Amino acid sequence: MDALLAIGTRKGLFLARSSGGGPYEMDPVRFANVAVHAVAIDTRDTGAGRPRVIAAIEWGHFGPSVLWSDDLGETWQEAEKPPVAFPEATGTTLAKVWQLQPSPTEPGVVWAGAEPAALFRSEDGGRTYRLMEGLWEHPTRPRWVPGGGGMCLHTVIPHATDPARIGVAVSTAGFFRSEDGGATWEPANRGIKVPFAPEGSQYPDFGQCVHKVANHPAHPERLFLQHHWGVYRSDDFGGSWTSIGDDLPSDFGFPVVMNPDNPDSAFVFPLHGDMDRTPVGHRYGVYRTDDAGDSWQALAGGLPDEPVYSSILRDAMTASPAGLFFGTRDGEVYGSRDEGESWDLIVRHLPDVFTTRAAVL
User: Fold this and answer.
1) Contact 189/206 with Cβ under 8 angstroms?
2) Average pLDDT, stretch 305-316?
3) Which of 268, 293, 335, 352 is at 20 to 30 A from 260, Cα to Cα?
4) Are 192 and 232 in contact (CB under 8 A)?
């Protein structure tokens, strides 16, 4: 099995390749000293005979942009006009692109989540994008409050079989879903608790601090959600949520990903929930459930035994048929080919890791 691992960092994009299941070999850095906030590896048929790599970068004072490569990162192309931009009538300027997500049901469609919180849609394979005005004009928007990372739309969840259905997560407005392809939206946070709110108002329609949401193509209604104060599961595409974090050493964290081979299995990375925000017990540890959240087990084989004080961001962990991977804020990337049972250090001494994505070539 040949695989590609993309690592977006504060100072460039790093691509690593594995041939025949062997170790990953690092390519030279792309976009050196440029922040790479989001990456997608589009394995659909793009006509190029190989996956398209799409990267959301921040050109410093030139601003954010999205580029694509059809030769696995050797060369890159960029639209003549800013590919993701707010219409002039909005009076808004794009701060960054937080998420790139190819559609599983619509050829050529790629979704982009942005800051300030907005959803954009591409119909040309990720070259150019248009604003989804239904979410931008949602009546609750004036009451959305930025989270610690800003007012960002950081997660896009297209339904695995129905292109009319799509969900997004906004920090700190919560999870929203559309049943008509993004024309209209409704908050979908029933059952997610906001503990600091006054008694009687701890389950609002919106205002939840959602850190990440994951879904599974074989069970399109099932979602797993990492919240600021909990881990949740939905079996009806966000219609309702059930708390599943009681068995974890901490229900605070940023990433959550699903096992591509098992819709009952998901992975989280618990952190200390106070301002420390380092791994629980100051040891790296991924936790896996195989029973949809009824129980969790720690997976740390091959990870460092010494104390660690680095953290992991919401998009720095990923799961695909190529394996399970996570990158840290001190520039280490670890990978597992056995669902987290054992880990290998892939690379160290990179810049701060923002995102990881992997695909079988």
Assistant:
1) yes
2) 96
3) 352
4) yes
3-state helix, strand, coil in the chain (%, to 5): 5, 40, 55
- Please say whether the beta carbons of 334 and 348 come within 8 A: no
Question: The tokens 């104390």 sit on which residue?
Answer: 307
> In this predicted model, what pLDDT tens digit does every residue of 143-190 receive, in sequence order?
999 988 899 999 999 999 999 999 999 999 999 999 999 999 999 999
Query: Would you list the DSSP string of 46-73?
Result: -SSSSPEEEEEEE-GGG-EEEEEESSTT
Find the DSSP H helices in the chain. 133-136
Rounded distance between C-alpha atoms, residue 347 and residue 334, angstroms: 7
The pLDDT tens digits for 265-286 are 999 999 998 788 999 999 999 9
The tokens describing 99, both together, are 């998420």
Q: Which domains does the chain have, with CATH numbers?
A: 3-360 (2.130.10.10)
Supply the pTM of this predicted model. Answer: 0.97
- Selection from 308, 306, 305, 289 nearest residue 297 by Cα: 289
